[in-house]
Structure formats: C-alpha cells, structure tokens
Amino acid sequence: MRAPTHIGAPTPRPSARFPRAGGARRGPLGWLRAGSLGLALTLVGALTTTACATGPNLSDEYGQTARENYELAVAEFGDKDWEEAIAYADFVRIRFPFSRYAVESELLIARAEFELKNYVTAQDSFRQFLRLHPTHKHVRNGWVAYMAAVGAYMAAPSSVPFLPPHYQRDQTLLREATLELEYFFDHHAGSELEPLARKLEAKVQRRLLEHELYVARFHLDSDRPEAAIMRLEAAHDTFPGIGLDAEVLFLLGITYLRIGEIELAREIFSELQMQHPEHHHGQQARLYLKYMTERYGPPDPNRPRPDRSPPVPETPPQAKPDEFKDWRWRKEQRRRQREGEPAEPEPPKQDTKATPEPPKSGKSGKSGKPGKKKAQPEKSQASEARDPEGRGSEAQAPEDPEAPESPDPEATEPQDPEAPEPPEPAAK
Questions:
Q1: Sequence spans of domains, the chain
Q2: Greater pLDDT, 234 or 314
Q3: CA nearest 181: which of 227, 123, 220, 129?
Q4: What is the DSSP string of 178-241?
C-alpha cells in the first residue's frame, strides 16, 4: 500500500507573488501580538470591576426615600462600618436636603468621622452642626458642644515614641479646646455633661501648663530671666489648682533670686512653704529661706531693688557720605584690578561741614528801606586799565565770616570822594 504523498513532505509555503497582508511575515507569536490590544483592554476592565467591587455597591443598595437611606446609614454605623455609614448619610444629605433625616445624617457623619479618628474633621462638623441647627435636642443639652471640645483635645499632639514630647509641640488645638469648653460652660452650665467637661478642662489646662513650664525653662537656659518670670507669673495666675503649683512657685522663686530680687524671692518661697509643706519643693524652699537670712539678713521692705527696665538698644553707626563714596571707589578699584584695567586715582575727600553763607552787602532798616552802600576807595589808573569794568580782585574774594562786623553805614555819613573840597575862608 502506497503511503500518502503528504506524509513527510515539506509544508507548502505561499509564493512570493501573493504576500501576506501588511507585507510582513508573522512568527510563532504573531497572533498573540495581534490580539494584545484586546487582551489589555479586557484586563483593564476586569481590574476596574474588581476595584469597584471592594467598596459598597451603593447603586444597587440605595433606598427610594430619605428614611430608608438613613436607616441603612444607622445600620452600617451600628456594624462599625464607618465609611459606608458616611456614604449613605451623605447621600441623604445631598439628595434630600429639606428632609428631617438630612439633619440627622449630618450629625451621623460627624460621629462617624470621630470614630474614624479624623478628629479635626469631626470638630469642624460638630461646630458647623451647632451653628446651623441651634434648636436640635443634642445642641440644647450641650452634647454637640462637648463633642467639639473632645475632638479638639483628641486632635492635639500627644507623646509618641521617637517624637518630641507633647509639651514641646504646637498647642493651638489645645487652646481651641479651651475655647470650646468656655462656650460649653457659658451656655450649658448645670447640664449632665458638666462633670465630664470639668475633667476635660483639667486635662487641657495641665498640658498647657506643662508647655508654659517648658518655655520658661528654655528662657532660663537662654539667659533671659525676665521672659521666664513673665511666663511663670502668667501661668501661676491662669492655671491654679492643677497640681503643678509647687513647681511653678519654686521655679519663680529661683528666678527672682537669680536677678537679685531678694524680697520677692523671699515672699515666693514663704508662700511655697506655707501652701505645700509636705512637697519636696516646699522643703527646698525652707532651705532657701534659711540661706537668704544668713546671706542678706532679715526681711527689709526698704531694700533697694535692682533696675529691671529693659535695656535701650544702641543705635548703629551710620556711614557718612564720603565713607560711602570711598567704599564705592574701593569696590571699583577691586573690579579694575580683577579685569586688568588701570587703577583710577583716589578722589579727594570733601569737607562735610556746611560753608556759612556770606553776609549781605546791604542791610534793611526797621522801616524796610534798603541800606546805603559803603563808599568805595579811589582806584588808580593802572587798576582801571587792567580792569576796565571796575571789578578788581578784592570784589571777587568772599568776605571772611570770622571778620568783625562792619559798622552800620547809617551811623556815619562818609563823604563823597569825587565832591570838591570846600574853599578855605578868606583872611580878614
């Protein structure tokens, strides 16, 4: 039996007269390269679908009414799915703005942001709700104002490893918490939340006082005791009864003793010893009082106090005009030297004193009439020939300011040099 002729025969190839479309031959992966664009689009669509599926598919789960969507938001909030709760509540707020559920959704969004630890956003949401809905029940009982203060306190920097302690960082949010608590005490005094607000106020004030003590120590280390005294006195008046009064008084007494305010230091140490006798700073104050008595004697109200007025800064010397010109000239000489140009001669220095004006030739009397001119001496014919206009060298020279003042021309009447002399009387 004859074997088929196609077995073992080479694969026929198209002739050169019929090239493939495109004019290029495809290798073994040519069809894969041809479908790479469609495969890439398919993969992108699949990834997009997968990414969208990770979040809540709200397009299929939205309710038809504001109540249904709000109930869905409350259910997600109860399941601690804060992001989905925010999404449903935000849908109610935008889609149904005039519904009463929109107001409740705003409050639910603020609570969910607080649970997500977005404390700054939560504080702003509570504050906005307080301003827009003053008649809401949670606004009237003070809960919203209290939560705004809690949000500001929680957003303040705290002590974290590998970072500076909280009292060395910015305290702006703690001051905002103080303002929120002041608003709460002004509008909701006597409410059920007041004990919690008082505890929060003590925490905020203690952290602010720790910051003030840190700043005072920094001023002392920088040799600025007056600035430290200002900080400590303000802290002693603003944050009393927090638990750091002994430390504030002790640091204040040491600072007064350092600048020579003996009587003020004695007064501070006496107050510290009486108010905190069991505290270790109170025992140290007793030793300081003993030392001051041995060194400076008993208390003396008339003891001279040191001058604590701030120093007057010295006025820096101002450059004179000629010095400024010399500086410019030297700069120009350096430039010429760098560029190889010939040096320029140094300009002569000018006298900065103002030259006094020469006195006027004529004086006006009390009546306002111009004064008479001085009589000019006779000129020789040689001088007239040399100066035909009658202006000699003496007329061009300025008058000496140091010369004595000439007498008043009105006091003496000079004779006219050109007038003829009167004839002598004839002999009798």
A1: 55-116
A2: 234
A3: 123
A4: HHHHHHHHHHSTTSTTHHHHHHHHHHHHHHHHHHHHHHHHHHHHTT-HHHHHHHHHHHHHHSTT
